[in-house]
Write a structure and sequence with these properties.
Shape: globular
Strand content: 15-25%
Bound molecules: ligand C2E, magnesium ion
Distance between the termini: 88 Å
Oligomer: single chain
Radius of gyration: 21 Å
Strand order of the largest sheet: 1-2-4-5-6-7-8-9
Number of strands: 9
Helix content: 40-55%
Number of helices: 10
Mean pLDDT: 94
Largest sheet: 8 strands, mixed, barrel
């Protein structure tokens, strides 16, 4: 009886693996056709200065609208793109979309930042640095307009990541470590990289004020970032209490539904202008 049971279990596992592989393959094929048919677009989520609420930038977040109209989020398709080596082509598409959406705005607002997400494969050579520089030049924007976000997975090939990061910063492009605390973070390699920003992952922000053991970690992350000279962007702020907690502890920047959900670039510009206008009116009243 034991042998058939083991055999059966083995069969079930093999079948599951096969089904997963098929799903991955069909997703991969769908991504290829999405690239051909131009089904990707970007949403932009405001990044605010916590002390003033001012919008200092926006993170570009990729979306895929399939031919049947369904919207697919990056958490579903970026991992497949990364495994299938389609990611560098997708990143190229992201750069074109950013250039298309934001060039004009950046030339008029030289202090505004666009943050982009890169994957590990994008960091294999400095070609990405040249590509970003060409984009910036064609745009008439400045390197300081860009922030590149890299998750800890991007540091697996540490020596090449270090070279690319160094080269980005030499050109004046700032670099952020994304989703900090969720990956393979080893403090020793973090110290060996020359970064500008640390993005505190939403999982730690969620814990603020809950009294859960993990809620204590935020304070430690803030202290560590400060001791390493990293500026901080807190991710996933949903409540005023979370914002106040971070503000009191000197975290400079934040992102989250409390300030704005990811939106089209047109909407971002519209709301940015409304805020500028409101600030001017207030200044005029005060003065
Ligand atoms: P991320 O870079 O950490 O982006 C932040 C994610 O948190 C976004 O999810 C955003 O919509 C979500 N978020 C922001 N504020 C809040 C909040 O207050 N509450 C909650 N519950 N969620 C919030 P999204 O857009 O689904 O992106 C997921 C991930 O996909 C990103 O995480 C990033 O790692 C990856 N991704 C997105 N766009 C790209 C891209 O162009 N290239 C690459 N390589 N990865 C991308
Ligand atoms: Mg990001
Ligand atoms: Mg993040
Ligand atoms: Mg994240």
């Amino acid at each position: 009886r034991l042998v058939p049971a083991a055999l059966l279990a083995g069969l079930v596992v093999a079948l599951a693996i096969l089904m997963l592989a098929r799903r991955q393959l069909s997703m991969e094929a769908a991504l290829r056709s999405a690239l051909r048919r131009d089904e990707f677009f970007l949403c932009y989520q405001p990044i605010v200065r916590l002390q003033t609420g001012e919008w200092v930038g926006a993170e570009a977040l990729l979306r895929w609208r399939r031919a049947d109209g369904t919207l697919v989020g990056p958490d579903l398709f970026i991992p497949v793109a990364e495994q299938s080596k389609l990611i560098t082509r997708i990143t190229e598409r992201v750069l074109r979309l950013v250039a298309h959406d934001a060039c004009h705005f950046l030339t008029v607002h030289p202090d505004f930042h666009i943050a982009l997400n890169l994957s590990a494969d994008d960091l294999h050579s400095c070609a990405i640095v040249d590509r970003l520089c060409v984009m910036i030049r064609d745009c008439g924007a400045q390197p300081a307009n860009l922030i590149v976000e890299i998750t800890e997975r991007g540091f697996l090939n540490l020596s090449s990541a270090r070279e690319v990061i160094g080269s980005l910063r030499d050109k004046g492009i700032e670099v952020a470590i994304d989703d900090f605390g969720t990956g393979y973070s080893s403090l020793s390699y973090l110290e060996s990289l020359d970064l500008d920003f640390l993005k505190i992952d939403r999982s730690f922000i969620e814990a603020i004020g809950t009294g859960a053991p993990i809620s204590l970690v935020v304070g430690h992350i803030i202290a560590m970032a400060r001791s390493m000279g990293l500026r901080m962007i807190a991710e996933g702020i949903e409540s005023e209490a979370q914002a106040a907690f971070l503000r009191e502890r000197g975290v400079e920047y934040a992102q989250g539904f409390l300030f704005g959900r990811p939106m089209s670039f047109a909407e971002l510009v519209q709301r940015f202008k409304e805020r500028e206008h409101a600030a001017l009116v207030q200044q005029a009243r005060a003065g």
